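fyi for ur records
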Amino acid sequence: MGYHQDEPQKQVYKFSLLNSDIDGMTPSMLLAVRIFNCTFSLIALSVAWYRDVYRVSFGLFISYLTNWALLLSVATLTLLVIATIKETKLQNIIRTTLDDQEALKAEKNRQKLVKFTFMMYEIGISSELVVSAIFWGIIYPIKPSEVTTSLDIVYSSLCHGMLFVVFLGEMIIHRYEFQRENYRKILMMACAYSVFNCVVVETTGFSPYTREWDGWNSWKTAVFIVTGFLGGISAYFLLASVEEVKNKFVARLCGAGQEDNLNQALLQDKTIQV
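which gave:
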């Protein structure tokens, strides 16, 4: 193992958090955008916490799919900032070290970091898509007109859609590759959300969807729990398909050889055997 010019070259994990589909966007610019996105997500979570009358109980607070998705979004966007900084350091080690074993260790750590961050991104954007679709497609149209004030619209947009736009922006500037095997993590997350809500309704009698203490008496409770479960999985496969189309379009636009050189700056004139 190590750097050897005379050995057969093995395929290197080509994905990186520092690449952009936008010409001229440097890693420093990507980091600045991600810091802004992370700050925005923290503001959205703070507003949701401040406005939620059930914040006295964290269990009731996260019984809402919106708040569940907000917490996932904050975790994902914070991870993106940390991972961008960390990968920059790892790439610097790979470029500058003369120790083959140290370079190999750094590359393996980089691969693990990127893969985990990609997985969290897939979960985060899927959650925000299903929240936006359910709220604007089902909940908002039946809200009483007297509560749909300008302030309510701003708040609703902040917590039900703006973070999805943030994730879409990240998808536009960066080339993500949805790993189809990650649907298992989405499935686990959807199951955890559904089970948690069932436990809340059963033990407290509070239904987060009717905002009443009526347990299972309303059909809305069961319907929304099932919708949240199926919606998360459906959103994942929809976004994976969209990203696949987008990547093919960018590859065709940039030329067939562009994709093979995504990590050229990392490899330079050396061959990493992994």
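The CA atoms of residues 18 and 26 lie 8 Å apart. thats all i got for now
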